[in-house]
Amino acid sequence: MSAPDRDVVVVGAGPAGCAAAVFAARDGLDVAVFDRGRSSLARCAHLENYPGFPAGIDVGTLSDLMRAQVERAGCALVDDLVESVERPGDDSDGSAGSDGPRLVVRPQEGDPVTARRVVAATRYDGEYLRGLDDDDAMFEVRDRGGETHERFDREYADRDGTTPVDGLYVASPSDADRQAITAAGRGARVGKRVVADARIDAGWWPDAAEGVDWVRRESELDDEWADPDRWVEWFDETHADGPVAPDSERFARVREAAVDDALSSYVDADEEAARAAAGHRALAERLDSEAVVDAHGADALLDAMDDEAVAAHVAGDEQSAERPDEASP
User: Fold this and answer.
1) What is the mean pLDDT for each group of 10 consecutive residues in the chain (329 residues)?
2) Which of 267, 282, 304 is at the close of a domain?
């Protein structure tokens, strides 16, 4: 049985796809995001209901920020259109199973990619998924003006994105992705489901596999919970009556991973400040320089620069002015 190329392939880099990809990648899964198509977000002239942007945000900037976040999380961003998602065949694509590929993603230009899991997070009317369901139940027939039309059934997937097709999750189209904020929420929910299912494949049981994805202040840990042994006790108490024997190797392995995961979510003040600074820089890189000057004023920006940086900038301008134009005769 050949190993899949990727743990997860996400089709679409809109709010739902990016959210699902980031959640999966942050848990250590190998994720590729395919994106080349006309997204619902791209049809908007300006986005005014996304939290954190008081005056709204243009769609191009938001898309750039989301894609940068996907790459920062460790995902591979592939500029290619997915034409179909298929089951593995008998032509060395692999065979289905917990360790092998469940699905094959065929893009328009690149080579096919095998994956344990695929998150459908783009519309295209769902045509690229046709044939995965033996009963074709993912499509519904509608009557319009005496003519019948097929479209993807928005209720085909469960609330967490799971579907009857092994390895396939649907984040979009769904009945919850009418606007960017709800699409992102749906994507996050599906991403968490993907993480939980991957953990279950690795030996976790369902109650233990449900994790959270956030970063907390280390200062919030009191003396009791700063001790890793207290987390071990908590895990043992929580899962003592679970489906896995507490004295088994499997239980010990999952407990160690769960405790490490919990403790790693806490950061000290220096790390918190470093992450805040990195977040500000990532936003600033995509802001128009004139807008920054208008918002803060030139004096405030000069005050924020140290004297050496200002002197070096001025010296550079003077040298440029003195240097003859190489293009002049």
Assistant:
1) 88 94 96 84 83 90 92 96 86 50 93 96 83 83 76 88 94 73 89 96 95 87 91 96 96 96 92 92 88 86 76 67 55
2) 267
Residue 230 makes CB contacts below 8 A (sequence gap 6+) with 224
How far apart, in whole angstroms, are the C-alpha atoms of residue 105 and residue 59?
Answer: 28
Q: Assign residue 108 the CATH number of its domain.
A: 3.50.50.60
Question: How many domains does the chain contain in total?
Answer: 2
**What is the distance between the alpha carbons of residues 144 and 232, in angstroms, rounded to a whole number?**
60
Residue numbers of the domain that contains 228: 206-267
Give the other-Cβ count within 10 Å of 316's Cβ: 10
C-alpha distances in Å from residue 171, one per residue of 79, 188, 207, 225: 20, 9, 23, 36
Rounded CA-CA distance 170/16 in Å is 10
| Secondary structure element (H or E) that encloses residue 293, with its range | helix 289-296
- Which residues are within 8 A (CB) of 274 and not within 5 positions of it... i.e. 6 or more apart? none
**Structure tokens belonging to residue 72:** 């920062």
Q: Looking up tokens 């006790």, which residue turns up?
A: 233
Query: Could you tell me if 226 and 184 lie in one domain?
Result: no
State the Cα torsion 237-238-240-241 to the nearest 10°: 140
> Which amino acid, residue 277?
A
Tokens 């005014």 -> residue: 48
**Distance (Å, whole) CA 10 – CA 209:** 21
The model's pTM is 0.85
Q: What share of the chain is helix, strand, coil (3-state, %, to 5)?
A: 40, 15, 40
